[in-house]
């Protein structure tokens, strides 16, 4: 996918998305949390623990052109789609954000997230850096959290230890990881994932805190 630009409607409280759907107001967009971080840092592990801690949170299920890993369930871990369908969704404005990462395309279906926010629920997106930047541009009220590894060596150990990628794919993901870690300062908060339960607890605390005050504190 060559075009990884911003396709998110940057409308105000009473604005409408590019395709006519209502967009969430400013206060509901504060309930949107983006969890980002380098491949292998433990985003899925921490988000899965967060789901256990608070089942009321809405967790976005992304679309991807990546092949399923053993044990991954279509509709639960991802919606696995082909490139033609992905391009169609982009063209129709059905993705809140989208990006190409290490040779595959990923995107967040817009409608379920907007519905969850409109219902007053917290919503969590687990996405990479380009997508996080698109959300930041379109929804400045969303909270952006970067999950950090305790060390580079630990990150490499986790990614290779997971054993889900060939050597070339691991290399591509580590190259992305360097870029992602260099952008850590763009995020509202950085949480070190030394321990999954601790990191998930910290994330939940952040989600339940008045984020504007945290932001001011960090600026
Ligand atoms: N705190 C931790 N301590 C030790 N191992 C961990 C920790 N968190 C996650 N792991 C392990 O690291 C590996 C990568 O975790 P996970 O798949 O959750 O990462 P991810 O950030 O979602 O990766 P990707 O972006 O590639 O999908 C897994 O094998 C997981 O069990
Ligand atoms: N921009 C987006 N990034 C996404 C989305 N769903 C997942 N991701 C991120 O992609 C990488 C690779 O994921 P993997 O499952 O192949 O290991 C990782 O950083 C995910 O967080 C999305 O919808 N948009």
Automatic annotation (TrEMBL):
Residues 30-208 form the Guanylate kinase-like domain. Its EC number is 2.7.4.8. CDD domains: GMPK (cd00071). It is found in: Cytoplasm. It is an enzyme of class 2 (transferase). It catalyses: GMP + ATP = GDP + ADP. GO terms for molecular function: GMP kinase activity. Keywords: ATP-binding, Cytoplasm, Kinase, Nucleotide-binding, Transferase. The keyword Flavoprotein does not apply. Its main location: cytoplasm. It comes from the Bacteria. ATP binds at residues 37-44. Residues 1-42 are annotated as: Disordered. Essential for recycling GMP and indirectly, cGMP. PANTHER family: GUANYLATE KINASE, GUANYLATE KINASE-RELATED. Belongs to the guanylate kinase family. This is Guanylate kinase. The lineage of its organism: Bacteria, Bacillati, Actinomycetota, Actinomycetes, Pseudonocardiales.
């Amino acid at each position: 996918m060559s075009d990884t630009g911003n396709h998110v409607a940057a409308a105000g409280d009473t604005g409408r998305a590019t395709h006519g759907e209502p967009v969430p107001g400013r206060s509901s967009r504060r309930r949107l949390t983006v969890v980002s971080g380098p491949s292998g840092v433990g985003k899925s592990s921490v988000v899965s623990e967060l789901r256990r801690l608070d089942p009321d949170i809405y967790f976005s299920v992304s679309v991807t052109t990546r092949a399923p890993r053993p044990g991954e369930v279509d509709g639960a871990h991802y919606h696995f789609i082909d490139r033609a369908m992905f391009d169609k969704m982009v063209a129709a404005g059905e993705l809140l954000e989208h990006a190409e990462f290490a040779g595959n395309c990923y995107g967040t279906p817009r409608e379920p997230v907007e519905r969850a926010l409109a219902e007053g629920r917290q919503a969590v997106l687990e996405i990479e850096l380009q997508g996080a930047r698109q959300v930041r541009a379109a929804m400045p009220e969303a909270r952006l959290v970067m999950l950090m590894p305790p060390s580079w060596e630990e990150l490499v150990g986790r990614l290779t230890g997971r054993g889900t990628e060939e050597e070339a794919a691991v290399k591509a993901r580590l190259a992305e990881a360097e870029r992602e870690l260099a952008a850590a300062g763009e995020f509202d908060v950085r949480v070190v994932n030394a321990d999954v339960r601790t990191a998930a607890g910290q994330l939940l605390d952040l989600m339940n805190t008045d984020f504007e005050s945290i932001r001011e504190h960090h600026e």
